[in-house]
Design brief:
- The protein has four helices and three strands.
- The chain is α+β, with helices and mostly antiparallel strands.
- The protein has one domain.
- The chain has a three-stranded antiparallel beta sheet with strand order 2-1-3, with helices on one face.
- α1 crosses α4 and α3 packs antiparallel against α4.
- The chain is elongated and about 75 Å long.
- The chain starts with a strand and ends in an 8-residue tail after the last strand.
């Protein structure tokens, strides 16, 4: 059986022979490297992330407030701040994995990166097994 990588991007669908694991890893590395070199988010280098603005009140100060609109606004501000911190870290981690993958020419990591992102818009792929004879079944 042969395997074909079907890479589904915004403007094109690509087909690659990945019958061996090495072919799959080499092609995945080529794809990640290509996307990275085009400076496509999330593969390209991110601009420096602007530091999230620290909320006006500390959590300790918010805890001392009586129930009401000011306390709720302070809690909401902290929730948004913490969400932004987590999101920024997620972006940095993704970028670091991609940079490591390319620097070390790590095909296995490239496959993981593509697999992790295959549900994202314009980043779909699947591996299809094809037969060279009618009636060949696994």
């Amino acid at each position: 059986m042969k395997r074909v990588l079907v890479l589904k991007e915004k403007h094109d669908t690509w087909y690659f022979d990945v019958s061996t694991q090495k072919q799959l890893e080499d092609m995945a590395l080529s794809v990640v490297t290509g996307r990275f070199s085009m400076r496509n988010a999330p593969y390209g280098l991110y601009d420096e992330v602007e530091e999230a603005k620290t909320p006006a009140l500390t959590m300790e100060e918010i805890d001392t407030l009586q129930k009401g609109a000011i306390k709720e606004a302070g809690q909401r501000e902290w929730e948004e701040y913490e969400l932004q911190i987590r999101e920024d870290q997620r972006h940095r981690d993704a970028q670091n994995r991609i940079s490591k993958c390319i620097a070390e020419k790590d095909g296995k990591l490239a496959v993981e990166i593509l697999e992790q992102r295959k549900q994202y818009e314009y980043e779909g792929f699947e591996i299809v097994e094809i037969s060279d004879k009618y009636g060949n079944r696994v």
